[in-house]
């Protein structure tokens, strides 16, 4: 049970018991006291509505009956009827300011829920003047005071917020919530609750509009158990979700993964220990490369309540979960993590950090050392005195999805979209979407896809293109340069470069990678071999591509290749010829230094004599400045 609830009970019961045990009440009206006694008996029997009615009758007999008003306020508080509770607590204080110091704390808690922040601040400051307050209660009161002060400041500096209902194709009279979209915004998967059963539905974006949502899959959805709190991989091929009380589960709620097979999904698999335990694991969010899973758990070792954890996928499976630490987690509850595809911006919900009441949405950014910074509240009116959670973003980071039941939608919770204020956005991200095909038959191919950060020489994406359609999708964060390599046994590999330094345009990269079989005369342009202008020393960013070429030659051990250098037509012919030959020689020497037999290699410079594009623009001249290899013996 969370701390706040414990404090509610701790503060509520003494006042009520004290009122019951008094031989003298603040009222001498016998009818009023009789109704009050009946109301208290109703409370003891959990008949809360009857207790409210009898408290009202007691007050109607004597409007200055303090104990009856306090009981009524506490009943409204228990039923989350915030405005009536605020009114009754205020009346108690006006009738007798020193009747019970706990009234100030209870009143302030309700006032924060009611967005009456100035009154809450006043009552909390009054409460904290009393001596000998229980340390736990004192901490809670100071937390509420921080909320009240933050809220007053936040409401005087609102952020832009114009939510748009995404329409009847997705929203119905039922509850729809927890939306997540693929990187290309082509598919939206969300939870719909019908007759208290939660299932997944999906909608496809066609010609700029969402089509009517359909049931996701009988492989994933069940009639007996609830499925929810899902995360879709950027390419839409893997679904991580929460399943509760399933017979194959380890605890009350576990995290499962399902893989898309053609147009349907495979059978979900429980992630098992160390991710899942006998406790509660839920609300997964998978990062861009599919190897770091963020989730919520109440397992031991946290900071209190529900915490956000992460687990990294290694050669032996998911690793031991790591708590995100005190810059994210608090003694209260942190929920609904969403890791953006930039892998360095985390959005989540919390009732522990200063906010406008209940749960607010926050953003934390990872610093250059890989540590999460203290979170920033998304501000008013994105956050309100109610509960906010379940936020997800588009890959571009400019729009966010969320759900709400108080924006006059189509019924219950509806899904909305809004433009995220610039200061709250993640790093700019785009994506590469490709199709891998045989160059001759144009048949789709299943091939290994790897994208490498050229500065760190580390992979940021590793997967396979779909075996039926040959497609793949991967996100790319701005500010870096990337190498793409596509390889398949029996074929030459495919090389591409994506330069996102100073990248500002949000247009994605769409490619068709045509793989050529390993045949004499077939060539590969090595698009990630780099030289400085008019020089032939290999730059360090070339190592990833050269490693792929070495790997290719190792797998195809009988193959001999020609390495060729090419230039544009800038400068004189002889200079270009010499430069191209020296660059080809540099690649040759590097391969030999890494153990490739010189007898398997030939190098040659062609200068400007074999252009593949015109030399009329800088873009075309860049295409002509290239390094290739060609099969000369299989």
TrEMBL record:
It is found in: Cell outer membrane. Pfam families: OmpA, PD40. It comes from the Bacteria. Residues 1-19 form the signal peptide. Residues 520-634 form the OmpA-like domain. Keywords: Cell outer membrane, Membrane, Signal, TPR repeat. InterPro entries: 6-blade_b-propeller_TolB-like, Bact_OuterMem_StrucFunc, OMP_bac, OmpA-like, OmpA-like_sf, TPR-like_helical_dom_sf, TPR_rpt, WD40. CDD domains: OmpA_C-like. GO terms for cellular component: cell outer membrane. TPR repeats lie at residues 66-99. PANTHER family: LIPOPROTEIN YIAD-RELATED (PTHR30329:SF21), STATOR ELEMENT OF FLAGELLAR MOTOR COMPLEX (PTHR30329). This is Outer membrane protein OmpA.
